[in-house]
Amino acid sequence: MKIISLFAGAGGLDLGFKKAGFDVLWANEFDHVIWETFESNFPETKLDKRSIVEIPLSDIPNVQGIIGGPPCQSWSEAGAGRGIKDRRGQLLFEYIRVLREKQPLFFLAENVSGILFPQHKEAFEDILRQFREVGYNVNYKLLNANDYGVPQERLRVIIVGYHKKTGLTF
Fold it and tell me: What's this model's pTM, rounded to 2 decimal places?
């Protein structure tokens, strides 16, 4: 199954999906510090290095799935906690923009546990509502990567959506 990766970082999500048999055709990462690592790990994947806000939807391939970890600094316990008021927090809307246009069968978005904090509740509920409005049955869960063999405590919110036309719910 062919997928794309938004906010790919060094490719952690990409690696998991690749190991599960998915084909990551295209990825987007704006942080130049990460490019060399991503390209070394995924030489077969086209890496688009532009800011997601500058990428026309016509430049993004049509695929069956979209994965990605929109920037977390706005939601992080260690960050300023500005959430959706921060321009990086608003990049989640770019993820939704791509979903709205491409309409893949599924998506997976990952972020830090801070997105669930009470001060972000209204923004997080709005994000989930927008995922639903663009056509997805959406669920989320707070997971600890340590429970899956990662040798550190690493709490992450995983949001999964199946397109409503599939009739599936995760």
Answer: 0.92
